[in-house]
Design brief:
This protein is α/β, with parallel strands linked by helices and about 160 residues long. It is about 30% helix and about 20% strand. The protein is built from five helices and nine strands. The strands form three sheets. The protein has a four-stranded parallel β-sheet with strand order 3-4-5-6. Strand 8, helix 5 and strand 9 form a beta-alpha-beta unit. The mean pLDDT is about 95.
Length: about 160
């Protein structure tokens, strides 16, 4: 991932109470957190990941983003809506990438076109593609977090249910 400073993220989120550190990755699953990651505690239909923030911090997360009720810790950035914060995170990483970007959208066939493009690009280029059918508010930022400073091409799959 193109590294970000925690202070850059908290400024963009209009949040405070976070310590200074470098963010070098992204995780929305406390079981996959690597040292330097930004852990975003999303609220699902059955589980609010806010309860996993201590686990993510113990695994070395540089910062955790959680909603109301998050632990009081200098490494935790509390926001009203973590999913929206994930979008801000994606925009920050994207703003640092200067290479070409291909956006694939439409009501059907996005994943097929993405896979066709992956075949055409081949393995000779340092390209970022969505790992799955990541075409929503959670998946697009997760794809953008895969961008590195040496990425030559970024391919994004975008759903059409909202602007």
């Amino acid at each position: 991932m193109i590294p970000l400073r925690v202070s850059e993220l908290t400024y963009a989120l209009e949040a405070t109470a976070c310590r200074e550190a470098m963010i070098t990755g992204l995780s929305v699953d406390n079981r996959t957190v690597e040292p330097g990651d930004c852990f975003v505690a999303l609220k699902g239909t059955r589980v609010d990941a806010t309860r996993f923030i201590p686990d993510a911090l113990e695994c070395g997360a540089a910062v955790a983003i959680g909603g109301p009720g998050s632990p009081d810790d200098e490494r935790v950035c509390v926001v009203e809506e973590p999913l929206a914060a994930l979008g801000v995170f994606g925009r920050l990483v994207r703003s640092r990438y200067v290479g070409p970007t291909v956006g694939i959208t439409g009501s059907a066939g996005k994943t097929t076109v993405k896979e066709m493009l992956r075949t055409l690009v081949g393995t000779g280029r340092r390209a970022v593609f969505p790992e799955r059918s990541y075409n929503n508010f959670e998946g697009v930022p997760r794809t953008l977090a895969l961008l590195a400073e040496d990425t030559e091409l970024c391919v994004i799959e975008l759903g059409t249910n909202a602007p």
